[in-house]
Amino acid sequence: MLKDSPRVLKDARFRQTFGAGDYFLKMVKAGETFRIIDVEGNEAADALFYNAHDTAERYSATDTVREQGNVYLEAGSTLMSNRQRPMLEIVADTVGRHDTLGGACASESNTVRYAHDRRCMHSCRDNWMNAISENGEFGLSKRDITHNINFFMNVPITPEGGLSFADGISGPGKYVEMTALMDVIVLISNCPQLNNPCSGFNPTPLEVAIWEA
Amino acid sequence: MKSALYEFTLPGGHHWSFRMRRNTALRLTDLEGGANLGMLIYNPENPLERYNAPDSLKAQHTFRLGQGNCLYSDMGRCFASLIRDDFGGHDTVCGYQSKKACLAQYGHHSFQDHLNDWTLSGEESFLKELAKYGLGERDVSANLNLFSHVVTDSDGNLQYDPTPVRAGASTTLRFDMDALVIVHSCPHPLNPATEYPKKPVHMEFLRTGPVTLDDECLNHRPENRRALENNRLYYLDEPVFFSRTGDQ
C-alpha cells in the first residue's frame, strides 16, 4: 500500500545523510516520527530497533510477520518486539513493500553466497560491529545483532516456497516513515554490498529525518 | 547408522537440550502426527555463533527447509544437514509461542493442579533451557519449527498449513559441527487447536561418517559446498572438496 506523508523536511528537528558502509545510531522518542530516504535509489537500509530502556527487548522479525499474517512490511505494518509489544508503526511508504526475512550481509556469508575470495569486503554486519564497538554507552553487543529489516529491498516469497533477491522496487527519493510507539534505539547500516544487484553494484547515501511528536 | 547410540521420546509440551558431536546424526520422528519441534542451535565453543534462519533461507533460495538443505550458522558455516526428510518443508520464520499467548489460547494449567500435564509455551521452554548455559532472551534467534508447515500466497499472506502432518514423518539431521541443541515440543504459535496438543517426538542419536563427495546436501547448492568448505577451515581438515586456495 503506497501512502504519502504529510510531513515536510524543513520541519524536521534532525536530518542526517550517511554514506554506504556507514551506520546511523540514535535514540528516537515515543511519539516521534522518522523517515529513511533512499536518496539515489536502489539502496538497502538494514535496520534494527531496541527498547531504549531495556535493550533485551528488540525488533523481532518472527513476531512481526506472524502477528500481522504477512511476510512483507508496508504502510500500516506494526513492528513488534520479541515481547510481542508494538515498537513502531510504518505510517508512510512510497516504495510498496520491504523485506524482513533476508537478513543482513556479512563477510562470512559472502563466502557462502558468492565465493571465498569475497571474504574481505565491507558488510552490514561488520558495519554493526563497528557501531556497537564505537558506542559502548548503548550497551549493545554481538548478542543483540539479530534479524533485521531490509528497507527498500525486494525479496519475493513465491507460493511454491521459493525466495529470491529481486530487482529493487525502490527509486531515487522514495522513503519509508515510522512513528515510534516506545523510546527506541535505531541502528541502521547503509548496505555496502558490492556483489548483489540490489544496490545496482553501486551503493549510495541514505538520509534520515526526525520530526517531533 | 543402524543401531542408535541413544534413543529418547520427548513427550509433547516439554523441553530438553543436549550436545551433538560432529559427524553424528539425529533422527526425529513425529510419532502421532501433528508434533512441533522448536529448535535453536549454538556453537558450544562460542555460543555467539548460532543458527541463522535468514542466512539459511537466502543462501538456498528457499522459504522452507527440507531434504538437501543445510542449517547455517551466522558465521558462514553449516551446523547440520537435512540428509533425510519425508515431511517436506519445515517452518523457520514463525518463531515460538509466548507464555501470554499460550495462556490465552489454551488456558492456565499450573504444575500444582496438573503436575506433568501442565501446559508450557515455547517461550518458557527455550528460556529455561538457554539459562542452563548462561544464555537468555538476547540469545534467542529465529528458531526452527520442525514438523510444522506454513504457506504464503502471492501477496505474502502467511498461513499455518496442516496438510503435510502425518504419523511417522521423520527427518534426519547430520551434524557437521559440534553443536548445542535446544529443543521444545510445545505447540507451533499458529496452531489453531483449542486444546493444547501434546505430541511426542522420538529422537535417535546415530553414528554417521563425514560428508562424502556424492552427499546430497553438499551438492544441493554451490552455497552448501562453500559453507562446508568453511567448516573444513574451522576444523582444519585435509582438503576434500576444494583445492587449498581455490573455491570455484
What is the strand and helix layout of this fold?
The complex is a heterodimer of chains A (213) and B (248).
Chain A: E1 14-18, E2 23-28, E3 33-38, E4 45-51, H1 61-68, E5 78-80, E6 86-93, H2 107-113, H3 124-134, E7 149-151, E8 174-180, E9 184-190, E10 206-211
Chain B: E1 6-10, E2 15-20, E3 24-30, E4 37-42, H1 53-60, E5 70-72, E6 78-85, H2 99-106, H3 111-114, H4 122-131, E7 144-146, E8 150-152, E9 158-160, E10 169-175, E11 179-184, E12 201-207, H5 216-220, H6 222-235
Antiparallel strand pairs in B: 1-12, 2-11, 3-10, 3-12, 4-7, 4-11, 5-6, 6-10, 8-9
List keywords for this structure.
heterodimer; A: 213 residues; alpha+beta; six-stranded antiparallel β-sheet; four-stranded antiparallel β-sheet; 10 strands; 12% helix; globular; B: 248 residues; 6 helices; 26% strand
What would your notes on this structure say?
The complex is a heterodimer of chains A (213) and B (248). In chain A, a hairpin with a 5-residue loop joins β5 (78-80) and β6 (86-93). Chain A is of the alpha+beta class. Helix content of chain A is 12%, strand content 27%. Chain B is of the alpha+beta class and 248 residues long. Chain B contains six helices and twelve strands. Chain B is globular, with a radius of gyration of 18 Å. The two termini of chain B are 32 Å apart.
